[in-house]
Amino acid sequence: MPSIVHLPQVPLAPRQGAPDAFQWQASADLAAAAGLARLRLNLRSLSPRRFSYPYHFHHHIEEVFLIVEGEATLRTPDGLRVVRAGDLLLFETGPASAHQLYNHSGAPCRYLDLTTVAEADVCEYPDSGKVGLLPLRIFVRPEPLDYYDGEQDPAAHWPEETVGPPGQRG
């Protein structure tokens, strides 16, 4: 059965645990509440003089923002651009779609945040060099390694009788 949501009546809750620079309010997942399994949809209200998220891009999730009220500055690899109510922002996967919103105004900027659902995603943060493994929320700063780093003796991880004694392996 179709669902109808009246945005002005959607309850918003403050984001918990974020630094002051990233303060906003968000709805519960509206798509999940309507029984949709392949989409996530939140109404967000970005507070004045605050950032949405750290500058980032996804490897497996596509995002769409619809600005429904107010305005903000969008940062992408192409530079800065003011977005306003009625603007639809589409972010494909990969570094060309890195993005971040900043509410430069004195009023809240409300926008719908629609994403595809993936079992797992890799999210990169170019400003800090972090990589996030989502939805596990594990964040690391990877070091460049050779593919075979730490793999010098793979037979050591096998029962000796299957690959032979040390020195005769291989």
Itemize the secondary structure elements and their pairings.
Layout: E1 13-14, E2 24-26, H1 30-33, E3 39-46, E4 57-58, E5 63-69, E6 71-76, E7 79-84, E8 88-91, E9 100-102, E10 109-116, E11 121-125, E12 130-134, E13 138-140, H2 160-163
Antiparallel strand pairs: 1-2, 2-3, 3-10, 4-11, 5-8, 5-10, 6-7, 6-9, 11-12, 12-13
Main β-sheet description:
6 strands, antiparallel
Q: What gap, in angstroms, lies between the N and C termini?
A: 61 Å
Shape: elongated
Which CATH class of the domain at 8-118?
Mainly Beta
For the secondary structure, the number of strands is: 13
Category by helix and strand content: mainly beta
Order of SSEs: EEHEEEEEEEEEEEH
> What Rg do the Cα atoms give?
22 Å
User: Helix proportion of residues, in percent?
Assistant: under 10%
CATH architecture of the domain at 8-118: Sandwich
Strand content: 35-45%
Uncertain segments of ≥5 residues (pLDDT<50)? none
* Count of runs of 4 or more consecutive helical residues: 2
User: What is the CATH topology descriptor of the domain at 8-118?
Assistant: Jelly Rolls
Order of the strands making up the biggest sheet: 1-2-3-10-5-8
Q: Report mean pLDDT, rounded to a whole number.
A: 93
- CATH fourth-tier homologous superfamily of the domain at 8-118: Jelly Rolls
